[in-house]
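Contributing new records

If you add data, match the layout below exactly. Sequence lines come first and carry their own label; structure lines follow with theirs. Keep one chain per record. Anything else will be rejected by the validation script.
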Amino acid sequence: MGHGQDWAVSWFGVWNHGGTEVAPEQGPYWVHNATVNYRVLGSVDLHLTANNLLDEEYLSPSDPGQLNRGVINRGRSVTAGLTVRF
């Protein structure tokens, strides 16, 4: 964030058509992530991040030798933090 900017917001969405080789039964889905940053002081920022906002259930590919159906991803998660610059 530059001089005079107190807020920053970012959003990222990913579309997957589903039906991968690892998980052919997986339907299409969106995964949305968002972050909000607020500069409290010149050297202190607060942030809030939410991943998988729609709480989609989906599979990620895994090593075919380990799992034949993929890895179930986490549902929605929210984290908050504080950054202090010295």
